[in-house]
Amino acid sequence: MSLLIKNGKVILSEKSDMLDIFIEDEKITKIGKNLEIDADKIIDAEGKLVLPGGVDVHTHMSLDLGEYVAVDDFYTGTVAASHGGTTTIVDHIASLSKGSSLRDMISHYHDLADGKAVIDYSFHGALYELDDDLLEEIKDIYDIGIVSLKIYTTYSGKLDDGEMLRVLKRAKETGTVVCVHCENDRAIEELRREAIINNNLSPIYHAKTRPNETEAEAINRLIYLSEIAGCPKLYIVHTSTKEGLEEIKRARARGVKNLFCETCTQYLTLDESKYLEGGNAEGIKYIMSPPLRKEEDIEALWDGVKNGDVDVIATDHCPFFYELDKLPHKDNFTAAPGGAPGVEERLEVIITEGMKRNIPIEKLVELLSQNPSKIFGLYPKKGEIAVGFDGDIAILKYEDYTIKQENRHSNCDYTTYENYEAKVKVETVISRGEIILDKEIYSATKGRGKFIQRKF
Ligand code: MN
Ligand code: MN
How much distance in Å is there from the Cα of 107 to the middle of ligand 1? Predict the structure, then answer.
């Protein structure tokens, strides 16, 4: 099977040009002007944007929280992702049960994803408790391609500072990337206790009980812990505040190395007024942690995107049903499951916003595809249009269209981007040389996605 994509505006690393791309079997084998090659299929991309397929390194398919389970599995979630131009995901695994080994947790996720995913995928390891065996296993899972893992400073699976330091030291030895959800657990617990006593339970109190300082403090603490450990690769997930980003910038300015900053689509586009508009029944849709912030946080994060302080834009896709799971708790935010969909909207929304802000598309592609690939060991396979890379491509046309629940593909029953006016639309998606979306025709077969053994 060979495929020739002609005349598109191709977004390469740091530049773009009108080029043709030739894909043979699964890989890109030639890039050039006016390629005269016979191909089994030719796509005319004139007037369109040709991007490397999106790499979303923060999703939670089938996340099992006990009382609630995220409503996209690896099939529906990757169908949604690919409709939005994303061709690779790296999913954060849930805890299995106390005492589970990392190998068991990973093997459970293979069971969840294999035979379901329609695009390529990998998993981050996760530590919800710590002992010597788990520390030892960090190397074992590294050797089978799980070169990153997640730890939490809050929730029931949190580690304490000493445990986090041990993880960081071990990660320094193995080369593992440590992803951290940074929020000050005890401060939030206290603020929630006060809110409950005062009956302040409407959705806006979700934001008020997780103030910016709770994120910034935890980011700062993790950075200092990583310095004590000798600066392993530390990746701050879903940075949502101006203050949090400031901590990262300050650390880099004093010479801290191997520090990466992720934010997500929602923290660049939606603010806390969403908790108030439309009353509690609307506001409850946006319960996610960290919460939506203020306009000034959004602006600070966009500055970070522009000047390179933010490395990655991901989604934290973790959907729960509105009618069934969220709405019953509209008057008590503490009882609603935390998380929202977003895996489908990322490319279209971020590119639209980037155009409004005159940010070069090359810069956006860096944060949507290239950097996440490099940081997490998917490079030089994913995240770039270059010879030798996988034939993972998203072709977007310039078109005004409105994002609505009725044109979404997730299993979830709402989108947080309802009525968003996009300026670009994903038209064609190619995964390892196979056209899986061609205008309105979707042809990805269940289970065609492959697990990627990552490495550096
Ligand atoms: Mn999180
Ligand atoms: Mn998450």
Answer: 22
